[in-house]
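Project standup — Tuesday

K.O.: blocked on the structure for the chain from last sprint. Re-posting the sequence here as requested.
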Amino acid sequence: MLVFAILFAALALLGSLVGLGLVGQPMGQHAITGYGWSLVINGLALSAFFLFLKRERAKQRL
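H.V.: unblocked you, prediction finished:
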């Protein structure tokens, strides 16, 4: 679980760099910043979800 949370947090970091225009080049006349920001949103949401699941499982064990 924690590995997936870290993976998606890294994906969110990559998405923020793409969204800010620091990584990647525009393809033709289209910028990829929208794609980068969607990576940020999805990555953060999935990371938070996996951390929530890990916390809930830890609470159930006690």
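K.O.: great, moving the ticket to review. The two ends are 18 Å apart (CA to CA). The chain has two helices and no strands.
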